[in-house]
Write a structure and sequence with these properties.
two-stranded parallel sheet; 12 helices; 11 strands
């Protein structure tokens, strides 16, 4: 089991696992009773129930099996419960628990993590539209890994979205159907995408847009969901660069003197965002914001509203006919 400071994936909840969580909330249960309840198979043969339980709970650290053979809640679901016989981690048979290969650090350790010791993956996606869960798909994805104050890797690929690309999107991104028709679909690039994402803090400019598309594509392809730490460089810019009238990537990059090669293409935008992130992390350090906890506190602080300029009381010239 590996403790991770960043992104990891885990199986999505299903109707059966949700029913199992509800059932086990009352305490450990024998596998025959558990499978009988969640699958509506009362009195199922024990060997059948055993196989079904292992198939349902494989890779899910919230379900563990005790030394007495009963299934119980464990891992992330046991928070707040006792540690004795009914509590989870004590008396767990490691042979029958199914921990994820990556488990997030506890919140207390997360807060104390120095920002300059974390690794980040800056993501940008180009898509067929803005509806991640309603039919739009990724046409291009790029991920830039930032570690120890340097850009250490750039991954980018065009993706066949398995649907047409609207004309206005092509006008913005210059990505045409001919460019993607022979490219891999997202399910084919998932292993490479997850290799770059896992263990790193997920970063993007207007982060929720890219996060929704990556998570929807991952869910569609693998039935897994992304979890872990995320950062939005727009939100950081609001704190670090309050003097800017806008925090679009163009404005932030111009302020830092970062040239964007290939605007509205995943690789160009992700690389520019990564360079801006490095500059903003440096600015945060200069302001005494050194840890993840410091950054969370800063981002939660209410924004300082700029005072509106009072209208002048002096007469102004009339530039158009106001009598009509």
């Amino acid at each position: 089991m590996e403790l991770t400071r960043g992104i990891y994936s885990e199986p999505e909840d299903t109707l059966l696992t949700s029913r199992a969580l509800d059932y086990l909330a009352a305490g450990p249960a024998d596998v025959v009773d558990l499978i009988g309840h969640i699958c509506s198979l009362p009195g199922a043969p024990r060997i059948v129930a055993e196989h079904m339980a292992h198939a349902l709970f494989a890779g899910r650290r919230e379900f563990v099996r005790g030394l007495d053979g009963r299934w119980m809640l464990g891992g992330k679901r046991e928070a707040g419960r006792g540690k004795g016989e009914e509590g989870g981690s004590a008396g767990v048979d490691a042979r029958f628990s199914h921990p994820s290969s990556r488990v997030p650090l506890p919140p207390s350790r997360l807060s104390n993590e120095p920002l300059n010791k974390l690794s980040y993956v800056v993501v940008d996606t180009e898509t067929t539209g803005g509806r991640a869960w309603s039919g739009d798909r990724i046409t291009e994805i790029a991920a830039v890994v930032v570690r120890d104050g340097e850009i250490v890797e750039l991954f980018e690929t065009l993706v066949n979205p398995q649907r047409s690309i609207p004309y206005f999107v092509t006008q913005l991104t210059n990505i045409t159907w001919d460019m993607v028709r022979d490219k891999p679909t997202f399910d084919r690039v998932v292993p490479d995408v997850m290799r770059v994402l896992e263990g790193n803090v997920f970063v993007a400019h207007n982060m929720m847009f890219d996060w929704r598309f990556v998570t929807s594509e991952l869910s569609r392809s693998t039935g897994r969901k992304l979890q872990g730490r995320r950062l939005c460089t727009v939100k950081i810019a609001r704190k670090v660069l309050p003097q800017l009238s806008r925090r679009s990537l163009d404005h932030v990059a111009r302020y830092y003197g970062v040239e964007i090669h290939g605007r509205h293409r995943a690789g160009g935008d992700a690389l520019a965002t990564a360079k801006c992130l490095l500059r903003m992390l440096s600015d945060l350090g200069d302001r005494g914001c050194a840890t993840w906890g410091d950054l969370e506190t800063l981002l939660r602080a209410p924004a300082v509203r700029r005072k509106k300029r009072r209208a002048s009381g002096l007469p102004t010239p009339v530039l158009r006919d106001t009598t009509a």
